[in-house]
UniProtKB/TrEMBL annotation, chain A:
Gene: ilvB
Domain Thiamine pyrophosphate enzyme central: 199-331
GO cellular component term, pick one: acetolactate synthase complex
Protein name according to UniProt: Acetolactate synthase
GO molecular function, one term: flavin adenine dinucleotide binding
Automatic annotation (TrEMBL), chain B:
Protein name: Acetolactate synthase small subunit
Reaction equations catalysed: 2 pyruvate + H(+) = (2S)-2-acetolactate + CO2
Native source organism of the sequence: Leptospira bandrabouensis
Keyword list, A-Z: Amino-acid biosynthesis, Branched-chain amino acid biosynthesis, Transferase
PROSITE patterns: ACT
Length: 568, 162
């Protein structure tokens, strides 16, 4: 501990700690119990505060910012309802391993536990959904908790942390401050030394005739893209990524077989069945990917992860390397040999040819897959894309090819509707020079639609691609296929006029309904760096394929061409 | 199968919630939990008994070790550790069965804390099986109240001796 000579308030100290750590932007919403902190923030020249319309928007913006920049995302809320509005975002960040610092106001320490106005036990509530949390009882403890929180959020497997900050502690004076070199720079924190035998690990890969690399979100968090590319090319091994891993390996690379899992490509899922060696790089055998212990039934399984608790959690593996992915691959690489894998690669090419991503593009209606391909072409794949959750999310994952990490922002683990718009806003603040597109649906969009005001207020250039089928599309798809077309509560019998709504916020908007309007629509939507909304009317019966029905495994994959069979 | 985990944690407020909450949300059932501070005031020792196969216990250990306040997790094998539980039992006696009750108490190495005309309050410690045993032996007398501490455990230093 070192001490400053001058005593300052807890609120002031919090602002200084954030500044020193390098925090440049915070997303928040003021209220009674956090006012002393906001009063100090008022004087900060280094930290920009973005005023949101709902705290859920604040934390998803922090997530979008964190995912697209690799830095820490920071959000602020007041006590009680302000704090509880962060719950969804904290859970989302926990499941997707996103480094988030949430600072919440709390009623004064002498009022805690008395059911005071706007009091909620946010410390207790967030225990299961944060990586670390603390109630700061004295201003003297603030610096210690802050350091702990930042290290934990950014270090190892990243995650959300929450500091609950009582109003009187914000006003209390302290001289206690840890001399620390906290930085929110990416990959700055603890990287546990790689444990395991990289040579033995590489030997198994070398012996494989049909190896497959299976890349997850850990690759993004570890900034391991270059290493993965080097490994894939050296081993001549095809690469599939999870939904979270999109962009960690170039989607346009000849060795890419795209996404695997429930709505992954047929060729990726078939490759999983055929491979004789599967190397999991920073994924967690999530249940949308690996249903059973017999995942990759013909393969020797190997797993690299920074979180030891992930080993053998859902699927048993034969080889383990515990540590940071980037470091681990660097240790494996020298032992990896080329090997002739021509027939395996040919096999993969045939799978790609015989089981392509497919949809019916005849007729006059606009197909979302087609539209997304045109957006991809127009942006040359350079955009940052956020999504909400549902059919549009899966179409975007399938038809927009991601070549770079940190350009694909989606709620993978929790499947949070309402995530897309605020995440795009956060990403745009972090990447003002890039095109940021929020792909959303009429259901998801309405869950955080109030953040249109945040776009308007900041004159932010966020592009909104709204697929409207007047349905909860994915729910409808399941009801059609598995509930005998009983569309229980999945149809919107009322939707607002989204174009007029955008207009009300001063955001240029346009609706298109016919195939002939696609070109005009794409042009309008992407013409400059400003914000825009394009509402694309799509057929309600359009479905996402391929699909592995819930509870089934790779063997049970249904392709677009199987649809006829399924309906019988 | 029963497992006994000995867990060292930082002695902070909220740590107990973090640990027990982990069991709740992952669906693992705690049979007993006993907590006390160690010789170091900053460190507490928790003994948790849970029912589960090796896979579940392995998962629990892995998840516990991820909590920043958890310092060490030890799975106590029965043969290489001492496991004890304390129980306080108040039960009814009458003139006719008083001497029988006292004989049992002597046989079990029980400490008698209070004796009234119609009741006995006793203290007993032993492993969980012995504690359950004495409870079932005293049941016919009419048990008024029971309080068990939950099991605590410590590993023998010399693992070869057992």
């Amino acid at each position: 501990m070192s001490s400053t000579t001058e005593a300052i308030t807890g609120g002031r100290l919090m602002v200084e700690l954030l500044e020193e750590a390098g925090v440049e932007i915070v997303f928040g919403y003021p209220g009674g119990a956090i006012l002393p902190f906001y009063d100090e923030l008022y004087h900060s020249k280094k930290i920009k505060h973005i005023l949101v319309r709902h705290e859920q928007g604040a934390i998803h913006m922090a997530e979008g910012y964190a995912r697209s920049t690799g830095k820490l995302g920071v959000c602020i809320a007041t006590s009680g309802p302000g704090a509880t509005n962060l719950i969804t975002g904290l859970t989302d960040a926990k499941l997707d391993s996103i480094p988030i610092l949430a600072i919440t106001g709390q009623v004064a320490t002498d009022a805690i536990g008395t059911d005071a106005f706007q009091e909620a036990d946010i410390f207790g509530i967030t225990i299961p959904i944060t990586k670390y949390n603390a109630l700061i009882k004295k201003a003297d403890d603030l610096s210690r908790h802050f350091e702990e929180a930042i290290k934990i959020a950014m270090g190892g497997r990243p995650g959300p942390v929450l500091l609950d900050f009582p109003k009187d502690v914000q006003l209390e004076k302290t001289t206690v401050r840890k001399a620390s070199a906290l930085k929110i720079a990416p990959h700055h924190y603890e990287r546990p030394k790689v444990k395991g035998d990289p040579q033995e690990f590489a030997d198994a890969l070398n012996q494989a005739k049909r190896p497959l690399l299976y890349v997850g979100g850990g690759a993004i968090n570890s900034f391991a893209s270059a290493e993965i590319k080097a490994l894939a090319e050296k081993a001549n091994a095809p690469v599939t990524t999870t939904l979270m891993g999109l962009g960690a390996f170039p989607g346009t690379h000849p060795l890419s077989v795209g996404m695997l899992g429930m709505h992954g490509t047929a060729y990726a899922n078939k490759a999983v069945l055929e491979c004789d060696y599967i190397l999991n790089l920073g994924a967690r055998f999530d249940d949308r990917v690996a249903k059973y212990q017999d995942f990759a039934p013909n393969a020797v399984r190997a797993h690299v992860d920074i979180d030891a608790a992930e080993f053998n959690k859902r699927v048993n593996v034969d080889h383990i390397l515990h540590g940071d992915l980037k470091d681990a691959i660097r240790e494996i690489l020298p032992f990896v040999k080329g090997g002739d894998r021509t027939s395996w690669i040919e096999n993969i090419q045939n799978l790609k040819k015989n089981h392509p991503l497919d949809f019916d593009n005849s007729g006059d209606s606009i197909k979302p897959q087609d539209f997304l391909q045109k957006v991809y072409a127009k942006t040359k794949g350079e955009a940052i894309v956020s999504t909400d959750v549902g059919q549009h999310q899966m179409w975007a994952a399938q038809y927009y090819l991601f070549d770079k990490p940190n350009t694909w922002l989606t709620s993978g683990g929790l499947g949070t509707m309402g995530y897309g718009l605020p995440a795009a806003i956060g990403a745009k603040f972090g990447n003002p020079d890039k095109t940021v597109i929020c792909v959303t649906g009429d259901g998801s969009f309405q869950m955080c639609i109030q953040e249109l005001a945040t776009i308007a207020q900041s004159q932010l250039g966020v592009k909104i691609l709204l697929f409207n089928n007047n349905f909860l599309g994915m729910v409808r798809q399941w009801q059609e296929l598995f509930y005998e077309e009983r569309f229980s509560e999945s149809q919107w019998t009322y939707n607002p006029n989204f174009v007029k709504l955008a207009d009300a916020y001063g955001i240029p908007a346009m609706r298109i309904e016919h195939k002939s309007e696609i070109e005009k629509g794409v042009e309008f939507f992407l013409k400059d760096n400003g914000s825009a909304l394009i509402e694309v009317m799509i057929p309600a019966e359009e479905k996402v394929f391929p699909m592995i029905p819930a509870g089934k495994s790779q063997q049970d994959l249904i392709e677009f061409k199987d649809l006829g069979k399924l309906k019988k | 199968m029963k497992h006994t985990l000995s867990i060292l944690v930082n002695n902070h407020p909220g740590v107990m919630s973090h640990v027990s909450g982990l069991f709740t949300r992952r669906g693992y059932n705690i049979d007993s939990i006993a907590v006390g501070v160690t010789d170091n005031v900053d460190v507490s020792s928790m003994t948790i008994v849970l029912n589960g196969d090796d896979f579940i216990v392995g998962q629990v250990k892995n998840q516990l070790l991820k909590l920043p306040d958890v310092l060490r997790v030890q799975d106590m094998a029965y043969a290489s550790s001492v496991q004890r539980e304390l129980v306080l039992i108040s039960f009814s006696i009458s003139e006719t069965n008083r001497s029988e009750a006292l004989t049992i108490c002597n046989g079990f190495d029980v400490k008698i804390l209070e004796m009234t005309e119609d009741s006995l309050l006793i203290e007993f410690s032993g492993n969980s099986r012995q504690v359950s045993n004495i409870i079932s032996v005293l049941k016919p007398f009419g048990i008024r109240e029971i309080s068990r501490t939950g099991q605590i455990a410590i590993a023998y230093r010399n693992q070869n001796a057992v």
